[in-house]
Design goal:
Protein name: DUF2191 domain-containing protein
Largest sheet: none
Number of strands: 0
Structural class: mainly alpha
Strand content: under 5%
Number of helices: 3
Organism: Nocardioides flavescens
Radius of gyration: 22 Å
InterPro entries: Ribbon_hlx_hlx
Helix content: 55-70%
GO biological process, one term: regulation of DNA-templated transcription
Length: 80
Amino acid sequence: MKTTIELPDELVREVKQLAAESGATMRDVVVEGLRRELRRRREAGAARPDFVFRTVGGDGISPDVDASDVLRHAYDLPAL
């Protein structure tokens, strides 16, 4: 299948260089890169344990708890 995508100039230069050095075509380099990334993502997803979201009864978050602080701590983000 043919498709058109826009790529950053620097990435295209790197792909061309790699293709030339390895005797491959740009198409071969891009296809192999996409396959590797898709495989890596599949394997990484399969390695994750199942997450069970448990809920409990109650009235929600306590009024003295800021939901943005909960998310910040959950994702280890810096304070705003």
